[in-house]
């Protein structure tokens, strides 16, 4: 009798081992294509565009340099940093105030590059946006000087969701990646909420060997990292890292979940989250109420159990949107986009507009922003 029991136990252990081995192999196989793709086709204005083809990038940016000599690379540690900064949001600032302050150093579209050396990285700063011009003004006032002191070759892209459909922060960031890349050969992408201002300029807006979470100590959370895998707020991924995870998911409508989904994409693609220390990584957040049409997504927790299987089929490779307008302000490039807020059946269809193939590029006058 004990012999039979032993045999049964042996059989049971063997079959469960086999089951788990097969399951592991199966999961691994589903997740294999971790290599960076050499071509990536997205749908922009109902047209397919391979965003990795050099042809999509008109060479409009003058090469840095000064007459009579090539510039050397900028030092790894920017020499003019100040350390901790005083930041407050009580002062009533206008865009024109900020233009007067930092405009003389910028090129149209919120572009900058150091004049004395060649920047180590070309950084696109992407801000997901709708109707937060007051926050944007504070952000531009404080962050432009920081990025200049950090000696970056950078551009600021405000990706403005058109209409009043459900907000989609992650899809706006995917769009920012594509729109910035169409304009210039950026190698690093910093994704930043409009209401987060760093209060230490040693927190470099650059990319590292692994995806980097920059907003580690926010005043709203008493300057403490709320949980170990957090990746929301401000984060930086190199072009290669972003391609490796297929960008963000496009299917998180409303508030929450998309940043944790990205955090999981990163670990499933065998990368880690790198962070500055909790003094360097301090931030102030501008206080605000929850916006309308950005209610917490009731599916956000459930969706996180699906990340593993969705990396390949939901992201940059399935991105589709229409550009309504590209406006060049001195302080930033404003890209207004239709994110097709009707595609998710869970979400109301408000704010929907018919698709269009045409879009405008125009220069922005200071007050136009505040008219809506
Ligand atoms: N956002 C926006 N308009 C909206 C909703 C969100 O511009 O109507 C952008 C903005 O950059 C904001 C970010 O999305 O900082 C994250 O949203 P929110 O600030 O509500 O999230 P929180 O982190 O404060 O919970
Ligand atoms: Mn916020």
From TrEMBL:
EC class of the enzyme, as a word: transferase
Any Gene Ontology biological process: protein N-linked glycosylation
Pathway: Protein modification; protein glycosylation
Primary localization: Golgi
InterPro entries: Galactosyl_T, Galactosyl_T_C, Galactosyl_T_N, Nucleotide-diphossugar_trans
Pfam families: Glyco_transf_7C (PF02709), Glyco_transf_7N (PF13733)
Membrane-related topology note: Single-pass type II membrane protein
Location of the Galactosyltransferase N-terminal domain: 74-208
Ranges for domain Galactosyltransferase C-terminal: 212-289
Keywords: Disulfide bond, Glycoprotein, Glycosyltransferase, Golgi apparatus, Manganese, Membrane, Metal-binding, Signal-anchor, Transferase, Transmembrane, Transmembrane helix
Family matches, as Gene3D superfamilies: Spore Coat Polysaccharide Biosynthesis Protein SpsA, Chain A
Entry EC no(s): 2.4.1.-
Cofactor list: Mn(2+)
Molecular function (Gene Ontology), one example: metal ion binding
Subcellular location as annotated: Golgi apparatus membrane
Catalytic activity: N-acetyl-D-glucosamine + UDP-alpha-D-galactose = beta-D-galactosyl-(1->4)-N-acetyl-D-glucosamine + UDP + H(+)
GO CC annotations on file: Golgi cisterna membrane; Golgi membrane
Its job: Responsible for the synthesis of complex-type N-linked oligosaccharides in many glycoproteins as well as the carbohydrate moieties of glycolipids.
Family, as annotated: Belongs to the glycosyltransferase 7 family.
Name this protein carries in UniProt: Beta-1,4-galactosyltransferase
